[in-house]
Amino acid sequence: MTQLDRRPSDDRQAPALPADLDARSLARWTWRQLTSMRTALVLLLLLALAAIPGSVIPQEDIDSLAVAQWRDNHPRLAPIWDRLDLFAVYGSVWFSAIYILLMVSLVGCIVPRLFVYARAIGARPPRAPRHLSRLPDSTSYTTDEAPDVVLARAEKVVRRRHFRVERAEGADAVAAERGYLREAGNLVFHFAVIVVLVGVATGSLFGYKGGVILLNGDDYGFSNNLTQYDDFAPGSLFDPAVMEPFTFTITDFDVEWMTEGRRAGQARKFVAHLDYKTDKDAPTQQYDLKVNHPLSIGDTDIFLIGHGYAPVITIRDGEGNVTKSGPAVFLPTNGQTFESFGVIKAPFAEPTQIGLEGTFYPTFQLGRDADGNLSMPSSAFGNAIDPLVSLQVWTGDIGVDDGSASSVYVLDKARATRLTKADGQPFRMDLRPGETVTLPDDLGSVTFEGLERWNKIQISRTPGKLVALGGMVVALLGLLGSLFVRPRRLWVRARRQDDGTTLVEVARLDRSSGSDPESGRAELAGIVAGLQINQQRSKEEDRS
Amino acid sequence: MTDAQWETLSNQGVAAAGVVYFLALLAYAVQWAALRDVPVRQSVAAGGGGTIVDDADDQDVAPRTEMAGRLGVLLVGIGALAHFIALLGRGMAADPNRVPWGNMYEFTLSGTFVVVALFLATTNRWRLAWLGPIVVGFVLCVLLADVLWLYEPVAPLTEALESYWLVIHVVSAVIATGAFTLGGITSLLYLLKARSTKEKGYLARLPELPALDRISYRMHAFGFPVWTFGVLISGPIWAHQAWSSYWNWDPKEVWAFITWVVYAAYLHARATAGWRGRNAAILALVGVATLWFNFIGINFFSTTSRHSYADGVGEERSVVLRLAGPVEATEEVRVVVGAHRPGT
Ligand code: HEM
User: If you ran DSSP here, which 8-state letter would residue B196 be given?
Assistant: First the structure.
């Protein structure tokens, strides 16, 4: 490699370990080592490698149930995995260590290059090497024009090709250079990578993501504060004070069920019609919340991500009092047929607490087994065409007395007893809307009043997302410059020879990796042709 | 035309493309068989261009091989046309009309088309005629596997896929996949040629190592920004709209990121002393492996990826919601909110 085609990157080779190991030279050596190209390369590969476990082992913040299952299945490995942070790879110390080292290396790498670049911007194209014909792209011709004439024209021709041109006083050659934007693009790209990381970090430190299941209808509303969320995952520096004070209700929910075609049975065109206020005192506005079309309020985005049914159930206790009445959210266990599972608790029922647990079928059907006998009930369709709720009853202590918070979706059966029929089989009731079943033993009755719907709404605040996006776009632009701008140098030398003619040598040096020799040769030929065509022209001008 | 007719046309297009590609392969076979015993003249090959026939100055061989080679390229072109019609038919057959990359079958159909199209676009300019047999053979095998194992009838997209960001996201992923695949092929040839000492035959007739390396680099230099745009810009934008957060460390995303990092390492390798050439080519192959693993492996093996299209329904994904009554309760219930959970 000649001195001339050194690139900034070539300066960043890892130096050898210094012989005299005093602290300063050791520190310098370490720093040079860390910011060398080879280290960057190794760190990149390490980052790729370190990302793999998280795609294989279930991750706590992505699928915590899968993690729980995995723990159950691998009781011995789980503690080890825990110690290695393998259930939370992307927040783990070792993963962070790799990308932080990479960033340090990156800063250490681009800052010095910035200075080098700044100097290069102001610098003149380097002098022509002594032996132009030794460069890979070079050519020559003889002419009887004077060297000065040739060089003056060369300046013009090369400048027209957007080269920066330099002809030193008294020199026998013109030096030219172009393609400075490659290094600029490369610096911009690497700098923007840091910006992206800052944006992403901002989002994960200061942002939050939460979800809520909200019943449809004006009777139910959501106001944006911590207590209203069903699940909430804040960043570690999240401050609840930044939460926008909006409120909304889902006035109505539309969905279109496909009844024919290959995707029959699926739903589409989900629209949740929202009435929202950005503030307590703000006017009410409307928005049609759809998949792929979140509503943005301030820095917060609101997404529609799910829907389901809530049968309205009334429980009268043994004393004839309505002890529980209202919609109960049933959670789909099948995303296609919307067969759903749910629990209804009546802790204040007398003489004993009542808990109901069972399945809701939007379109009830009985399957048939191999012999054609009616068998397992199921849901034929997600739309509520023939809704039926099938419930079993638990009495005794259903565990909501002691004040401990328990999930509304789970029935604590540890101290409860299942109601049975005379033959010992579990007592089960199948209700269609409007129907009432009286419980045995004078325990009361259960009525299926009707059906409501709910939506799962996801709400997130991700500060810095535009920083990350902007950074990424700038990175891409820089990358394009870095990959496709070809920095190159060019020299034209003209020297009077002994026989009185002038020898013109033209040489070109491509400094980019992966440049195409064809186009290089073409450029060279173009310049030579430019020199000669102009020679013709000036001769003609002389004659006229 | 009705949707059913479009679908039939699409299937016929795939069949026709397969047949024509096969014929192209035969033409190439004739060409290379004729060249098999002709020694390569060093001086010409050193020029770096992909010269197949110029140096075969044997009077009998040259015209015949040249004809066969031309015929090969022509047939690839015709096959590409049929291939394109197959894609068009897929899109037109759906109601509403849509882009033809809604499932693995279609993605593979589009990806192989991009490989062929890129090859045709660059073959003259970069003198890639020698790449023809490999490209056609590869595409033919992949198409065959696609039809045999991945075929799915036309179906409308699920709701979450109806977004123009999907179009942009997937089209860039497909294009980059095509470019990286070609780059992988040339890198593999680089490694094979680097080990080969033969003076005759296919490897000997490839461009010299520096030229091969340069061609690989240019394929990657084209693919990398496109991949960057697809995976790190349009993907996150779409994910943000559909899933409420722009990056979820979903297995598919993780592997797309891994691919990106490996290719960044490849580009670095080319600028690092001691890593040029062989090591860079190996990294390019690692990159292609991660790319295809992501496409095939994750779809079939991952149970958690929301991007899976492997199961017929595709978009029915289970998610865990940490559902609670009033605030604190943390019981976890597995719920399928599937029906309109997006899934690429
Ligand atoms: C997050 C980490 C990094 C990423 C994603 C990254 C990515 C890239 C990419 C894609 C290129 C190709 C552009 C081209 O070929 O012109 C490149 C080039 C380069 N990178 Fe990095 N890089 C990273 C870190 C670093 C670090 C730490 C260093 C310093 C040692 C570094 C130094 C360079 C240099 C000098 C080039 C130019 C190579 C050339 O002249 O062709 N990069 N980088």
Answer: -
Atom 26 in ligand 1: residue holding the nearest Cα: A106
Q: At what angle do helices B164-195 and B235-243 cross, to 10 degrees?
A: 140
* Residue A278 Ramachandran class (φ > 0 left, ψ -120 to 50 alpha, else beta): alpha
Q: Determine the Cα–Cα distance for residues A327 and A216; give it in Å rounded to an integer.
A: 10
* Cα A295 from chain centre: 19
- Contact present, B179 and B220 (Cβ < 8 Å): yes
Check CB contact under 8 Å for A64 and B322: yes
Q: Does A469 touch chain B (CB under 8 A)?
A: yes
Quote the distance between the C-alpha of residue A460 and its chain's center: 14
C-alpha to C-alpha distance for A480 and A220, rounded to whole angstroms: 52
Q: What distance in Å separates the CA atoms of residue B257 and residue B240, rounded to the nearest whole number? A: 17
* Cα Rg of chain B (Å, integer): 23
d(CA B70, CA A374) in angstroms, rounded, equals 67
The SS3 assignment for A449 reads strand
> Which residues in chain A have Cβ-Cβ distances shorter than 8 Å to B317?
335
Is residue A515 lining ligand 1, measured as CB closer than 6 Å?
no
Asked if A41 and B155 come within 8 Å (Cβ–Cβ), the reply is no
Judged by a CB distance cut-off of 8 A, whether residue B293 touches chain A is no
Residue nearest to atom 10 of ligand 1 (CA): B264
Residues with pLDDT less than 70, chain A:
1-21, 261-263, 400-406, 513-514, 534-535, 538-544
- Residue B200 C-alpha from the chain's centroid: 30
More confident residue, B149 or A16: B149
- Whether A472 has its CB under 8 Å from any CB of chain B: the answer is yes
- Torsion-angle region of residue A221: left (phi > 0), alpha (psi -120 to 50) or beta? beta
- Rounded CA gap, B205 and B36, in Å? 10
User: What residues in A contact B235, CB-CB < 8 Å?
Assistant: none
The DSSP result for A212-223, as a single string, is: EEEESSTT--EE
pTM above 0.90, yes or no: no
CB contact under 8 A, A305 and B272: no
How many whole angstroms separate alpha carbon A384 and alpha carbon A450?
Answer: 11
For position B308, what pLDDT does the model report? 42
pLDDT for res A269 = 80
ipTM above 0.95, yes or no: no
How many Cβ atoms are within 10 Å of B137's Cβ, its own excluded?
16
- Mutate which of A291, A466, A510, A518 to disrupt the B interface (most B C-beta within 10 Å)? A291
The confidence band for B116, taking pLDDT boundaries of 50, 70 and 90, is very high
Q: Using CA coordinates, name the residue in chain B closest to A9.
A: B271
* pLDDT tens-digit series, residues B279-331: 999 999 999 999 999 887 776 665 555 554 333 222 333 222 222 222 222 22
pLDDT at position B53: 44
Map out the domains of chain B with their CATH numbers: 1-37+65-157 (1.20.120), 160-304 (1.20.120)
Cα–chain center distance at A402: 43
CA of A62 to nearest chain B CA: how many angstroms apart?
7
B 35-54 residues with CB below 8 A of A? 48-49
User: Do B274 and B281 contact (CB within 8 A), yes or no?
Assistant: no
Interface list for A 221-250 with B (CB within 8 A): 226-227, 229-231
Inter-chain touch B241–A66, beta carbons under 8 Å: no
B219-234 mean pLDDT: 94
DSSP-based three-state secondary structure for B222: helix
Question: Chain centroid to CA A409: how far?
Answer: 31
Q: What is the average pLDDT across B215-223?
A: 93
Is residue A480 within 8 A of residue B225, CB to CB? The reply is yes
Burial of B237 (C-beta count, 10 Å sphere; 0-12/13-18/19+): middle
**What is the whole-number distance in angstroms between the Cα of residue B279 and the centre of ligand 1?**
16
